[in-house]
Design brief:
The chain has 222 residues and is of the alpha/beta class. It has helices at 14-28, 43-52, 70-77, 93-99, 113-116, 119-132, 152-163, 178-183, 190-193, 198-220; strands spanning 2-5, 33-37, 61-64, 82-86, 104-109, 137-142, 168-169. The protein has a single domain (2-220), classed as Rossmann fold (3-Layer(aba) Sandwich), CATH 3.40.50.300. The chain has ten helices and seven strands. Helix 1 (14-28) crosses helix 10. The longest helix has 23 residues, at 198-220. The structure holds adenosine-5'-triphosphate and magnesium ion. Residues 14-15, 39, 43, 88 line the site of magnesium ion.
């Protein structure tokens, strides 16, 4: 499965989500995982380097890919259960190339107006890519949500605005929690820092919800 975590808004949590999902696949699903880091800032490559220096952590393979990465991703997908693609925050060739072969595109969005404004352009890109990759499933996932109960309407509103673009919006979300930021140190994930914590459950829920959509669709088509 090629899972692209993409979107053009910087800081929405793409790398954080890509890294934690990769650990979930490797550790809890015991799957083979490769992360393709397509961001010249190398956030995820640096995280992997720290991770793979620690023999106590599951090794996750990582490769840097830029530009026309379509064929690279297709051949890597033959060798790994999950290829997780972390694209940087801009509309670039790698993002479009990855979209043209991805099984699932996850687009993190903070429940903030400037972030949600980018949904229009994402919808444009997705519909263009669907012409060459009609089986692709795309989902918005609302991230870094405020946890105060009086802020709950903001989360709901963000989900409704995203859904109005005709793109799936996951029920599962992430709340703003320091553990996401802190766990990146030394190549760890929320699963190593607090395996039964709230953040680990948020990532599990996101992964399971996304994988269930894939299964429903494959079942439908036999
Ligand atoms: N749910 C969360 N709660 C708190 N902090 C978070 C959460 N998700 C991500 N972060 C933090 O927000 C910062 C930005 O996240 P991240 O680097 O994943 O964004 P990005 O979308 O990959 O950014 P870029 O577009 O620059 O690649 C990081 O410090 C990360 O640890
Ligand atoms: Mg990033």
């Amino acid at each position: 499965m090629i899972l692209l975590v993409g979107g053009e808004k910087g800081g929405s949590g793409k790398s954080c989500l890509a890294q934690n999902l990769a650990v979930f696949f490797a550790k809890e699903l015991e799957a083979t995982v490769l992360i393709a880091d397509c961001d010249p800032q190398r956030t995820t490559s640096d995280w992997i380097q720290a991770r793979n220096n620690d023999p106590k952590l599951e090794t996750i393979n990582c490769i840097q890919l830029y530009g026309k990465i379509r064929n690279d991703l297709l051949s890597l997908n033959e060798h790994y259960d999950y290829v997780v693609v972390d694209c940087g925050g801009s509309d670039n060739l790698a993002l479009r190339a990855a979209m043209s072969v991805a099984n699932h595109v996850l687009i993190p969005m903070r429940p903030k107006r400037r972030d949600i404004k980018t949904a229009t352009h994402m919808e444009d890109m997705l519909s263009t890519c669907k012409m060459v990759n009609p089986k692709m499933i795309a989902s918005f996932v609302i991230t870094q949500c405020p946890s105060l109960p009086n802020q709950a309407p903001r989360i709901l509103e963000a989900k409704e605005v995203c859904a109005s673009f005709g793109i799936n919006v996951l029920d599962s979300i992430t709340y703003a929690r320091n553990i996401y930021d802190d766990s990146e140190e030394k190549g760890t994930s929320v699963f190593e820092v607090e395996p039964d914590g709230k953040a680990a459950n948020e990532i599990r829920n996101i992964a399971n919800e996304m994988l269930a959509i894939k299964q429903e669709i494959s079942y439908e088509f036999g």
